[in-house]
Amino acid sequence: MSESDLMQKIISLCKRRGFVFQSSEIYGGLKSCYDYGPLGIELKRNIMNEWWRAMVHERENIVGLDASIIMHPKVWEASGHLSSFSDPLVDCLNCKERFRADKAPVVEVGSEVTYKSQATKKEVTSTADRKYVCPVCGSTELSAERNFNLMFRSFMGSVDPVSQVADKLAGQSLSGEEVRKILEEELKPSTVYLRPETAQAMFVQFANIQKSLSLKVPFGIAQMGKSFRNEVTVEHFIFRSCEFEQMEMEFFCQPGTQKEWLDHWKDARLDWYKTYSNSPEKFRLRQHDPDELAHYADNCYDVEYDYPWGWDELEGVASRTDYDLKKHAQNSGEKLTYFDQQATDPETGKQGWRYTPYVIEPAAGATRATLCYLLDAYREETGVDANGKEKVRTVLKLHPRLAPIKAAILPLMKKNGMPELAREIAKKFFKAGVMAKYDDNTAIGKRYARHDEIGTPYCLTVDHQSLEDGTITIRDRDTMEQKRINVEDALKEVQQRLEA
Ligand code: GAP
Q1: What is the tens place of the pLDDT at every residue in 63-78?
Q2: Separation CA 305–CA 294 (nearest Å)
């Protein structure tokens, strides 16, 4: 299967089986916005629940936060997002494509480049004067680079800012620059932004959380939720979208210990991804080059995955220094420091040290991880059917704890008391909160195939023997092996396998 085939197969399976749909599809769709269907939401939630369990519930010193998506605009001034959270945009003067300079195909300055001119429809050869060419037509006829801020802007309050601006501008004869100035002035008081990352709320609430729970450094604050970026380049299905979900944790530590904690968290995060994978070798760490580092970081590793288009980012684990806490302290006038009674102040040599904690930030994308685990799980296996004919089985080998449906409860036939017993078993699963589906549609082989394709790890079948001796079969999705177990043990058996 070729790489682009695999992506196409995943996209098609996502739509066919209800994992992911294009947003607003009946109106032609909205570019780079996606809806997670009945199975997609289960898979994404399971990934997020596993992250929360590993990052918060299994640790003594990490607590959670669920902050407002809309925050005070001063947050984004202090964090630097207003001034520098932008992409370098370029227009191709040949084919009119708008693209990101930093994501465009790389060429050597001074090399000869050939592309098709849209005007003459003939091949043109020119000398590249930049390190990149147009990603669509390969042309070197490019506009200047402009910085484009990625934050979505909106307006808060009961006054309609557009009417206000219209009143102010009515009847005036102004230059473009003057109109722009008035617009910015009138809109500024009601301007708010959709958060482009979940991280900032953890810095802004640092003191409240530390004091209310008397937390001792080192400790972490974790948050999962939606983030929004007006991405110019949207690519690879849900890999990069304008609305996505993040799972971020800010780990506050003593200055000087950041290297040791960065080492700890980069390894812990890599291991976490591998736990749920069929191909752990497809995950790796890559240290950022110094010129790649964000303005707030002194070191950073990406957890990368070997996607069909090559190695690319899945999560960033950054050493953010004390940049954010210091910036928010300066801009708000609040004290965002920590007093450690046990530590010795390195400047005075006395016991008791007040400092601004350093921060290690594992920042993951839940929607990107959803794509990664779909790719990791997709298999087409060739076998033979009951008549010896070759057939291909499509199976999603999702980790059982990530699988949308944990158990399918299947009566072999719709008669002789089989549906009743199957429904009784299903009820026990529902009551225990273990996601199960009763399914009596079509022949048993087709039902197994359907559940293989959506990644259901266990199929429990009620057959003739079940009514005689109180046993059912449990079929394993990956090995297709079946074993007989007592009806009473069905729920426990599945729960034990899920925890294994
Ligand atoms: N607080 C740091 C931060 O937000 P980032 O590298 O910009 O860092 C972290 O984002 C993670 O969020 C990425 O590794 C990726 O998994 C996810 N992510 C970022 N932008 C995304 C987008 N447009 N669509 C989907 N996921 C995205």
Answers
A1: 999 999 999 999 999 9
A2: 21
